[in-house]
């Protein structure tokens, strides 16, 4: 057994344990038993938003709420380009919990991939192959009067720049 000695190594190991348990504690049902329902597609030019219902069971939703509450929520910031984020409360006011978990993203992708196109047009009109969900999972919490004005989601690039 390897015992981490460097503080960063111990921190990474704790984060890995926390994330792997996130999957075990929140995705409770075999994906074959989940009946995802496509509901609505909103389009603006080549941008779109797709609403899917029943991706998670009510029990899974409750488990995600409990786990993210334990991890904690921060004020959600706005991406302003160049990798920078700022607090702009008249544009976005809500809580956000970010969880980096490749396994959770892959399991969620398995539940929804049949409802998504194989290719999308990117911001610079390039043709992009849709390969999955990125592991930067953002859980949002809105209280009374909180909101996020109409927007286009920002991009996430993996630290190793693989995607």
UniProtKB/TrEMBL annotation:
<dbReference type="GO" id="GO:0005783">
    <property type="term" value="C:endoplasmic reticulum"/>
</dbReference>
<dbReference type="InterPro" id="IPR045054">
    <property type="entry name" value="P4HA-like"/>
</dbReference>
<dbReference type="GO" id="GO:0004656">
    <property type="term" value="F:procollagen-proline 4-dioxygenase activity"/>
</dbReference>
<protein>
    <recommendedName>
        <fullName>Prolyl 4-hydroxylase alpha subunit domain-containing protein</fullName>
    </recommendedName>
</protein>
<dbReference type="GO" id="GO:0046872">
    <property type="term" value="F:metal ion binding"/>
</dbReference>
<keyword id="KW-0479">Metal-binding</keyword>
<keyword id="KW-0408">Iron</keyword>
